[in-house]
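For the sake of transparency, this paper describes our internal protein records without simplification. The tokens are whole numbers drawn from a learned vocabulary of local backbone shapes. One such record is reproduced below, unchanged from the form in which we store it.

. . .
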Amino acid sequence: MFKTFQTYKLLFLRLILIVVMIEISIYFFKTELLFTGVFGLFIVFLLVREMYFYVRNFVLLYDKTIASILQNDFTSDFSNHKFNKSYNDLFQLYDVLKNKQNEQVSKDIIYRSILNNIETGIIILQKQDSDWDIFLMNDYFSKQFNVPKVSKWKYLKNQLPSLCEIIEEDDFQEIKTSVEISINEQSKQTFVLQASRTEIFEKDYFIVLLDSIQNVVEKKEKDAWVNLMKVISHELLNSITPIRSICQNLQDLVEQDSLSAEDLEDVKNSVETMLRRSDHLQKFVEGYRKLAMLPSPKKEKIELEQLIDNGIQVMNPLFKENGIEVVNEITFKRWIEVDSQQIEQVLINLLTNCIHALKNVSQKKIFISAEAKENRTFIRITDNGNGIEKEIEDKIFLPFFTTRNEGAGIGLTLSKNIIEAHGGYISYKSEVGNTVFEICLVE
């Protein structure tokens, strides 16, 4: 209990002094100095009393400090005791734990604030014996489902039976599914439910995340519209601004009394520029119309190898012109049900991109391969070009995004829309020295 040398020393000195006073008092009694002996015993009584209160105060202070630490109550003020060096270690321990608790409380406040501002319903359960307590429920969950921040699972079950029954059916294990929940007897809404279970410091936790599909879709749509409007406004301004400037210049020339040969040449050049920019705008609008009015695929059975060969034959003149070697690695027979014209257009778009990617490469090669897995067919088109810069990887499928001056920026977007209309997907990845576009078609 008494861990400092100072405490041991003070107690030892008190005991020595008491023993010495007892010996002196006994000596006085032996020499028949009764009053002096009684006085000595009185001094012994005072010393014992002082040592009792010294030890008592020390023990009380020690117990109070330990009780505060055990109860996580760091509101006590021991400043008036800090001058006593006997308590240095005890108060140092108290201050260290107090600072750690303050730091932990600050972190908890920050984490809870973050969780409460996330637009995802979050609820964390903590197992107590055979029941579950609600460790945390964020504000979004409480507001979205109109439930109070209850502390027990059974209370939440009364509020949201449809959600709780799904969790109980899986015995509070990992879940990833969609669930329809009716709020305030209104029409049902669909949510993505993700749940996981973890054990931390021998405590069992169950974490539930709920995302409204409607909110996710709306956010994606909003982001898509923002990106689209940026591209459209950029293209329109790039054409309208010079056209307006040219019109102003033409107006100034027309207002002159006579036109010189140089002025006529300016008029001619201005009209040509306006026509060129108008053609660009027309192509841009045509590209948008293609994306917006993509017809539904008319599926028919065709052999995969034949479909690939058709695409290669269309592009063969360009391959020869650019000195590109095309390696078709597809050797197996497989029938797929697709709109052959649309898929052929996708192949042409991807192969055209490969040609541009191989412009500055000495040994130009394109590899076409395929793989069949159950009801899925994977088609891979690989080139050994310079690849796509990481900064623009997430933009390559955006409408009208292009890195080429002569490009319209709809090839990959149109390809993506066609494949998705077939119920598949198209993805891009960069391998060592190669760029790979992969098409997945689902039967």
The radius of gyration is 42 Å. The chain has eleven helices and twelve strands. The mean pLDDT is 78. The longest strand covers residues 189-200.
